[in-house]
Amino acid sequence: MKTQVAIIGGGPAGLLLAQLLHVRGIDSIVLERRSRAHVLGRIRAGVLEQGLVRLLEAAGCADRLHAEGHVHHGTLIAHADRVFRIDFSALTGSPVVVYGQTEVTRDLYAARDAARGRTEFEVEAVTIHGADTDAPQVSYAVGGEARRIECDFVAGCDGFHGVSRRTIPDTVRREFEKVYPFGWLGILSETPPVSEELIYANSERGFALCSMRNPRLSRYYIQCAPGERAEDWSDAAFWDELRRRLPADTAAALVTGPSIEKSIAPLRSFVCEPMRWGRLFLCGDAAHIVPPTGAKGLNTAASDVHYLWHALCDHYLNGCDDGIDRYSGRALARVWKAERFSWWFSGLLHRFPDQSAFDLKMQAAELEFLRTNTAAQQALAENYVGLPY
Ligand code: FAS
Ligand code: PHB
Questions:
Q1: Pocket flag, ligand 2, residue 211 (CB < 6 Å)
Q2: Is 262 a catalytic residue?
């Protein structure tokens, strides 16, 4: 088989790139290790930056987002039984949109079907050949049948556990990692959200987050110890712990119900440099991971896709390779700012096992400064709504 761009990974990064390339007449094949149902069964991110909204509009995939997404002009932060608001729109002129990653992925698959794009599911043994040559290839198997794609470029959109990053030689690749001493236990419940806006809570028992997908579907998280298992938490135990971590009036207003999804995500910061090797380009979680505190994971995958989409269009449509040559540097410049914000926001809101009394005082002082200082709130708001591409 031949194509212009072989895309490994049928998550949001791979699908968004495929659809954006399609609208510019550039052909791609998407290879996805799991089934479509499995990919669409994942519950992940919930907050979209305007940059991602604009990309989905450019891809012709934003109709349902505009119809069902919820525009949020700010967020709430709770600490020591006090709640204060960060007004994104007043401070930056930009809101965010609450619309689940699952729905983004569903919309992108629908667009791929409509475009009759080639997507192979449940592929195995994906291997990239000759990424450092002018004629890369990707071999794989599906249903036990060996196949091979000849292409011009390979986009590694296969997430943290994919094969693309490891195709870059160890002598070239540099990895930076920080593993946090806690995870997030998240549940989805068919209950009305406790608040119209998200609540990020720093409590003496640990972090909690009140989020949502729509007025009838709530998403909640609590910080948990590393190695804990979701199956060890009953719904009742989760709701009790969540209540203990929220301000009293919020806890009293909480509507609980059976969880329809319950999972634990480990928290880490991770970056791979470079994000390009020859004709292989890494996008999204294949190249970087952030703790979900700042809602930057999906949104940073989007900015990678933005840079790569324009680079490949310049190559094919204008015969210019400046964007390709600058891709890794441009993407990493924004990735590291997202890493910093996610690391800072996680440090502000979580309780760390080795925190001293002084550390706790510093955390409280930082939260009080944020509550009372407009410049501090503006800095948070500009990062949260999304730094410019
Ligand atoms: P993805 O991991 O979404 O997609 C990669 C795709 O590649 C997957 O479908 C995978 O099956 C496929 N793949 C892997 N190896 C392959 C191979 N060898 N061949 C072919 N295909 C292969 N971000 C937030 O902003 N907020 C959150 O609350 C949040 N929660 C998260 C919870 C969890 C458990 C995880 C893992 C991530 C979470 N994230 C969150 C981050 C997440 O949203 C990612 O940033 C986002 O999925 C990035 O999209 P992709 O880069 O497409 O990677
Ligand atoms: C979510 O709704 O899943 C969500 C929202 C904001 C975050 C992380 C997760 O920072």
A1: yes
A2: no
95 lines ligand 1 (CB under 6 A): no
123 lines ligand 1 (CB under 6 A): yes
Within this chain, do residues 126 and 259 fall inside the same structural domain, yes or no?
A: no
Has 384 been annotated as catalytic?
Answer: yes
272 backbone φψ class: left, alpha, beta (φ>0; ψ -120 to 50): beta
Q: CB-based contacts of 214: which residues, under 8 Å, 6+ apart?
A: 68, 70
Domain span holding position 253: 179-267+352-385
Note if 200 is an active site residue: yes
- Is residue 278 very low, low, confident or very high in pLDDT (cuts 50, 70, 90)? very high
- Is the pLDDT at 318 greater than 90? The verdict is yes
Structurally, the chain folds into a number of domains equal to 2
Q: What is the pTM of this model?
A: 0.97
- pLDDT of residue 165 exceeding 90, the answer is yes
Ligand located closest to 49 CA: 1
C-alpha 210/C-alpha 200 separation (Å) is: 7
**Ramachandran sector of residue 105 (left: φ over 0; alpha: ψ -120 to 50; beta: rest):** alpha
Q: What is the pLDDT of residues 207-224, one digit of tens each?
A: 999 999 999 999 999 999
**Residues 211 and 299 occupy one common structural domain:** no
For the residues 322-340, what does the mean pLDDT come to? 98
Residue 102 Cα to ligand 1 midpoint, Å, equals 11
Nearest to 325 by CA among 333, 316, 315, 317: 315
Closest-lying ligand 1 atom to the alpha carbon of residue 47:
25
Name the catalytic one among 99, 180, 200, 220: 200
Ligand 1 midpoint to CA 178 (Å): 18
Is the C-beta atom of 163 inside 6 A of ligand 1?
yes
The per-residue pLDDT for range 92-105, each reduced to its tens digit, is 999 999 999 999 99
CATH code of the domain containing 319: 3.50.50.60
Cβ of residue 339 lying under 6 Å from some atom of ligand 1: no
- Closest to 305 measured CA to CA, from 113, 131, 122, 54: 54
Residue 307 is among the residues annotated as catalytic for this protein: no
Q: What is the pLDDT of residue 81?
A: 83
